[in-house]
Amino acid sequence: MSNLIIIEQAALNEFNYKLDSIISKLEGKQESTKEWLSAQEAMEILKIKQTSLWTYRKSGQLTFTKINKKVYFLRKDIMNLLDKYKIVGFNLKK
């Protein structure tokens, strides 16, 4: 005999969001152990192009290390940059 469970759409959406978050954290766990990232990896995380990355470097918003024309970024510096511009959501009620 099967039981029917009824759940509100909002609760289902919240559950799906949390489940997606857990899955993405588990999938990215191996990658997150890497401390130093290439410019390409930094651009992928930040979802930006090379010119934007160069602007962040030039303005001092993102520190970097350069060895033989190759640029590296610390993962924690990239995450700090993302946190710096984080906007806390707000609820719009009509």
Measured distance between first and last alpha carbons: 44 Å
Strand content: 5-15%
Summarize the biggest pleated sheet.
3 strands, antiparallel
Helicity range = 40-55%
pLDDT < 50 stretches: none
Roughly what is the average pLDDT, rounded to an integer? 86
Query: Which term fits the overall shape?
Result: elongated
Describe this structure in words.
The chain has 94 residues and is mainly α. The chain has one domain. Helices cover 51% and strands 12% of the residues. The chain is built from four helices and three strands. It has helices at 9-28, 39-46, 50-59, 75-84; strands at 36-38, 65-67, 70-74. The protein has a three-stranded antiparallel sheet with strand order 1-3-2. Strand 2 (65-67) and strand 3 form a beta hairpin. The longest helix has 20 residues, at 9-28.
Question: Which descriptors would you attach to this protein?
Answer:
mainly alpha; elongated; 12% strand; 3-stranded antiparallel beta sheet; 94 residues
Topology, pairings included?
Elements: H1 9-28, E1 36-38, H2 39-46, H3 50-59, E2 65-67, E3 70-74, H4 75-84
Antiparallel strand pairs: 1-3, 2-3
Brief digest:
This protein has helices at 9-28, 39-46, 50-59, 75-84, and strands spanning 36-38, 65-67, 70-74. The protein is mainly alpha-helical and 94 residues long.
